[in-house]
Amino acid sequence: MTISARRANTTEPAASRRRAARPSSRAAEDAPASHALDPDAAGQDRPAQAALGRNSDFVQSLDRGLAVIRAFGPDQERLSLSEVARATGLTRAATRRFLLTLVQLGYVRSDGREFSLRPRVLELGYAYLSGLALPEIAAPHLEELVAKVRESSSISVLDGDHIVYVARVPTKRIMTVAISVGTRFPAYATSMGRVLLAAMSPENLELYLATANLDALTGRTVTDREALRAVIGDVARQGYALVDQELEEGLRAIAVPIHGKGGAVTAAINLSAHASRVTMMAMRTDLLPALQETAGRIEADLRSQGAG
Amino acid sequence: MTISARRANTTEPAASRRRAARPSSRAAEDAPASHALDPDAAGQDRPAQAALGRNSDFVQSLDRGLAVIRAFGPDQERLSLSEVARATGLTRAATRRFLLTLVQLGYVRSDGREFSLRPRVLELGYAYLSGLALPEIAAPHLEELVAKVRESSSISVLDGDHIVYVARVPTKRIMTVAISVGTRFPAYATSMGRVLLAAMSPENLELYLATANLDALTGRTVTDREALRAVIGDVARQGYALVDQELEEGLRAIAVPIHGKGGAVTAAINLSAHASRVTMMAMRTDLLPALQETAGRIEADLRSQGAG
Known about the structure:
homodimer; alpha+beta; Beta-Lactamase; 47% helix
């Protein structure tokens, strides 16, 4: 069985993940403005980015080198020089220089013909995760929640117009691991994304609604901007978001906010379940109370430990 | 309570992790030869690296940009331009260009005075992890093992002279998460490292013994090259490695190899426990049989799924 086939058996929406993760990587190169929507960074990064443009301060080699790393992925573990060149849009000569540099730095392995990433690339993401207090504080509470309700739970933060998993505990019946930390999904189609959008300032939300790409990921995805604004308004009033198969067919999820010690929403926590197993009613009556209780415990720990 | 204080309460050897992780980052810049010891890559990367040297194919800007990302970490979440310059050894002007480029690419956030990493950096490690079948296949077996023996379990691969966690399931009583995926430790002082060293070809093992830095991480660490060769020989004969507080005071761990479908050792799996709670005898009599059983199940799945 292939990895894709195995993933298709889980509630991890593999197809959407691939759809979602790849274009967002490209966005980093092509449209710097598109990730200026982070509520924490908005009004801080944006002027800097606007002023920067593609000027003499921009180190193109770094941009290209990171694109070479991102060329590898789930269905691209081993790539030839030509394949990397095709994926990045670089010339073969430039691709070769970047690959050989990455080999020399220990990030890429080569057998002469094909290239693959080495575990050292994990250091780069580790530099970010190890600086976060939330995943560590939340871990035992996530474990407890999943043991109790027997559905998978995740915590995400907003990064531009995507959510990014920073912690995840799968149920026993789901074969997914820490792999999923770092997974990105478009905010509008996910329960955690809607919770985070509902916590935005009105200005940032309008900017998001005006600029986000609202693609139909399933037949049920809300893609109309007015309809989405109304849905997000409901989430703000209710204090939770319930999404029924808008990210992936067969997947339901419910999310609530996690407030940092200052009271601002810093992350969202969800429970996801197979639509065939858990009704919409059960999501609200069985899962929501347990989810809210867990969020409350995490918030209490964040306050008492001075983090978040 | 600080993150460091919280970590000190777990069996996660925080101090060693920091000691271990940082210098290895530096090694990537200064001594490319030091990570040519990977048994998979040896004889493949090394000639390429030797031929490369610091020649015209080496893209220095990529090297420096990655060093800027690695400057951030557990105790360095928010850094000023000067602090990044100090950590990387770059000039202020160069540091500024790299930071602004990373801001523009969405990897770094700036509030004008201080810089911090954004979740997008997780994409880089994700590109590696998502290409690995092992963590996904091993996950349910790790969960089962940890639920049964109530000690933390990890899986590592060798990368140069370090082991790197690719999967980890902590016990309930330990507050550690996916954070730990990507953590690096020097191979010689860890149970998983010794299992992986024991599986090396004699030539690669001799090269490792001749070149590795064998620092005393605790008063018990085996640092004598002859003694280490003997210990590794014992591991090869016994089929497991048991390490008593050589990586961190108070931490014991036992590891066995995981063989890929071709029969070669591709990874190691361990159980770690507090020395105050589990005797050396109990490590062997209680934990080892469960660990071996789990390794066998993972190997069976790797074979049946054509991976590894």
